[in-house]
């Protein structure tokens, strides 16, 4: 049992019952503030923890960390120290912050340097992302899209239950929550037309996803088995894989999505570690037919993480449009990583692997507007009385997620983006 995960632990820093960041979470991210250059931080309740200050003040001196390991614009250098080190930092944070420990609690000046109200910081992209893979691992999503674009009787392609299908996406346009996104322009084929037109997408959509980040590299030619995958997975974020359905429909044959997907994807700023998610493991769906030996995985490899999507029209309040769960994934992350590397493709620290849209089994659990409004045939009612088939200019889309068990809630905060008109 990981000590920092003990559900009985309480902190001397008060956290609200519905906070995503109790002492059992302690995620990692990168922040800056008026007085502080970009650096690594952790989070408890409404406070960001300045890890560099904590190190400077000697609180981490037993951990043999490199000097200024936290004073970087991304977590890559810290993560590359390995899980023994990153796990030890989380354990030490848990120790310093737990009720009964007064090493920091009693030092007013140190506390004011280390603990910064969350409202005073700006969160940055947590890692430098070299490569980005997007999987397609939710059966309900693949079935829905296959039914709409092809044929309900043959919705899943013959390879789908044998391969964790994925493609290599674009890393340069992955942005942190809060970034405003301009509606993409591109080629589309209007209904009943033989000639494409150019202009702003008319079918802008979100995709409710989660992503994991690798914390350990491999050399070209090496593979990572499903058993070894946990050593390579540092943690998880919420992921909105923005998509332009009309551009996608016209361009995706024969090589798959291109400009319909690479104009923006957004992540939540806090990486929740694999260790913090251990208590929330559950078994995945039964895989039938049997998968090839290199894809077989033992134990509980799915995670029970509640996921929600809301749309906030300009000047109106949010409307909840979807409630799903990460546990619905057909292919688990260990299988995804084993498949990614089975041909010898190498991994780097900070690479990102998105799950694919996570659609639950019922229509209110679908993970995209394409599915929720079923290709525009079932518009969704917003709080201000307007309807949505896809996302309008001025809309802000929120994805939120948290796991909860034995009264302990470990969450991700949110990823939100406002959509602006085309440039
Ligand atoms: Ca996607």
Structural overview:
There is one protein chain. The chain is built from ten helices and 26 strands. It has 423 residues and is an alpha+beta fold. It has two domains: 122 residues, Roll (SH3 type barrels); 289 residues, Fumarylacetoacetase-like, C-terminal domain (Fumarylacetoacetate hydrolase, domain 2, Alpha-Beta Complex), CATH 3.90.850. The strands form seven sheets. Strands 6, 7, 8, 13, 14, 16, 17 and 22 form an eight-stranded mixed sheet that branches. A five-stranded antiparallel sheet has the order 4-3-2-1-5. It has a five-stranded mixed sheet with strand order 9-26-25-20-21, with no helix packed on it. A hairpin with a 5-residue loop joins strand 23 and strand 24. The longest helix is centred in the N-terminal third of the chain and has 15 residues. The chain starts with 28 loop residues before the first strand and ends with a strand. The mean pLDDT is 97. The site of calcium ion has 7 residues, from loops.
